[in-house]
Predict the structure.
Amino acid sequence: MTQISRILGHMKATKDHSITSMEAFQKFGATRLSAVIFELRKRGYDITSIPEESVNRYGEDCKYVRYRLNMKSVKSVEK
């Protein structure tokens, strides 16, 4: 099983069908989630980038992206 298939499986299985870079690193050791998302998009999966903001451990504002899988695209890609 590859990181790509693990991350895709995670996105399919989670309630909101999404993942962030931090989640990908913690769960799968994936340090380049954007490369995985690029590959999945190239394969035909519809994945939306949703900007989010939070506060880091130092109390500073930080921005990151949550990638959300459109489940309708899964059916068309995996025919």
Q: What stands out?
A: The first helix runs from residue 3 to 13. Residues 3-77 form a domain with the Arc Repressor Mutant, subunit A fold (CATH 1.10.10).
